[in-house]
Amino acid sequence: MAENAFTQNGALSSEERAALAKSxxxxxxGARWFWWIAGLSLINTxxxxxxxxxxxxxxxxxxxxxxxxxxxxxxxxxxxxxxALGFFFAMGWFALRGHxxxxxxxxxxxxCDAGIYLFGGDWMPVAFHALALYYLIRATVTxxxxxxxxxxxxxxxxxxxxxxxxx
Length: 167
What we know:
The protein is mostly helical.
């Protein structure tokens, strides 16, 4: 890590951002929600394509919709699923490294995904989406405050060299 909380222009380095994000359990937990969403959606995809009627309510409505529409054209369904799952995995990865934008983009997409269930009147997934969104938003607020606090810490200038002459 750098010797102080700032780079030369006052911005945090990527290592410092990641260390700050990983230092707070709310941020870590929030970032990992993206991974849970991706993982459970992957399981949902496997369940649908294996003929099961069971699925997790916290998974993505988008992947369920793609799997239902393209059930007979599995490569297209799997391609769409891979993009969606990769996106949420990446949002978790960037969020865990202290990037507020990753939380915000992921939240927007997950809220839109909740709209799929809302439109279909499937209330249990809507409720779980709301729960996940709560933890994602809480992590975003915490990360933003942590980064702002770290950026406002004054940097002490290095000490001036002492003169050794006797005059």
